[in-house]
Amino acid sequence: MGAHPLLDQLLAGASVSISDLKKNPSAVIEAAEGFPVAILNRNTPSAYLVPAAAWEELVDRLEDIELAAMVRERAGETPIEVSLDEL
């Protein structure tokens, strides 16, 4: 179900205007306390500022999901015995 056309879904617990972000980006990052911040342009989310640790965790989780999908795809394959000398 999508957001109402006049209401934008805010996917962060905090938001800041682009103008305020430009004034002091370090303060915004510090105030976020490790959580994402929605960047607003005319009261509409235009981007999200995601702290490095949160981004790294997100990328790790996505990689885990991709690996799990690969394992599920290969689960029914017939194994082939190979010796280390053959590699």
UniProtKB/TrEMBL annotation:
Domain of life: Bacteria
Membrane-spanning intervals of the chain: none
Pfam families: PhdYeFM_antitox
Entries under SUPFAM superfamilies matching the protein: YefM-like
Family from the record: Belongs to the phD/YefM antitoxin family.
Function comment: Antitoxin component of a type II toxin-antitoxin (TA) system.
Protein name per Swiss-Prot or TrEMBL: Antitoxin
